[in-house]
Amino acid sequence: MPSPVGVALLGATGSIGKSALKVLERQRDRFVPVAMTANGNAAALAEQVAQFGPAYVGLVQGSVEAPSGWGRGPECLVEAATHPDASIVINAVVGAAGLPATLAALRQGKRVALANKETLVVAGDIVTRTAREHGAELVPVDSEHSAILQCLAGRQPHEVKRLILTASGGPFRTWPAERIAQATRADALKHPTWQMGSKITIDSATLANKALEVIEAHHLFGVPYDRIEVVVHPQSIIHSFVEFVDGSVLAQMGVPSMELPILYALTWPERVADTGVPSFDPVALGGLTFEHVRHEQFPMLGLGISAGRAGGAAPAVFNAANEEAVAQFLAGALSFGGIAERVAEALQDLAGAPGDSLETLLAADAAARDHVKSRIAQEA
Ligand code: NDP
Ligand code: MG
Questions:
Q1: CB 76, CB 104: distance < 8 Å
Q2: Is 241 in contact with 145 (CB distance < 8 Å)?
Q3: Ligand nearest to the CA of 80
Q4: Which of 94, 221, 248, 266 has the fewest CB atoms in 10 Å of its CB?
Q5: pTM confidence score
Q6: How far is CA 76 from the centre of its chain?
Q7: 195 phi/psi in degrees, rounded to 5
Q8: Is 16's C-beta closer than 6 angstroms to any atom of ligand 1?
């Protein structure tokens, strides 16, 4: 067997990061972690480093104490992503903070296994153009997009009629609007089918996550927005569908474990044997059900898709306003219903800003965060 492929893992201490390390550990004949980063969790990172021994370690938060050999500050993400021993970069950072590292890795022609969907929402055109120009591969880790990639399996764009993304519906799938508006942090963090980091768990409760995923799918697969749909599927067993022009529909199924799409993003287009995922038992599944999205109760989905359709700075504003609103909700400074209100206001005021370059997109991102912060401060 050839020597293992070097992998840089950004966001090693998070939910995706830890799942990725389980996969890398099982697949150690094929892959080896050569660079690892975290934001501020130095203790957890140090434990992982002791186990995996990567050549490069980086911690973003400069104020946190860390061993002297570690890279420090936000630049450490780019240093890890461009490490000469890494051919694949798993970007499992949460939020727009992951964008510069994705771009840096693509510019060097590396494969980016992308969990950090915010990268594509903020700057999808720039990211996909960079990948094309440098012959780099952008392979999704997000389970819906991994499912679509598996269903497409080399089909031509003109053969595809529709992408149908599944959504679990989150913890408030059946709740009335008034109750959702008052939902607590504990209610919102109780996801019915997936164990994930807190930001994406809140995004799954508002359905903002599915809006981010529609935009992500648009950029990854080049499919126009009017041919991307969302259906609620509470069991999270079918990870998405592709409908072809002849009426045939393919779905990808599997137990809800991110280890499956992480491994596929590493080995695509090949499949390799893996012992870590429980085997599939159709009888044990019981029924698989599907429902329409209740748009009135979950306004974040429509807001995000409209921002995607509008293009320019609008998706970056949607994403940044949402990141800030979710952080404020988690900190107890904003109600659950307030998330969509603050994001709608930010879009109203800022969506028309220029968004034709990385600089203007990052300016729109910063303005949206400030907008949400100042509205919340005014109300306090
Ligand atoms: P977590 O919050 O669990 O982990 C985030 C990771 O990124 C941690 O390692 C954290 O470090 C680090 N991090 C946080 N903020 C920053 C920052 N500003 N700069 C650099 N690093 C940072 O998130 P998840 O693993 O759940 O999600 C990661 C990404 O994957 C998100 O984009 C999410 O949408 C996407 N995703 C997640 C899924 C899941 O099942 N969890 C499924 C599909 C997509 P530290 O521990 O030090 O704070
Ligand atoms: Mg997903």
A1: no
A2: no
A3: 1
A4: 248
A5: 0.98
A6: 20
A7: -100, 110
A8: yes
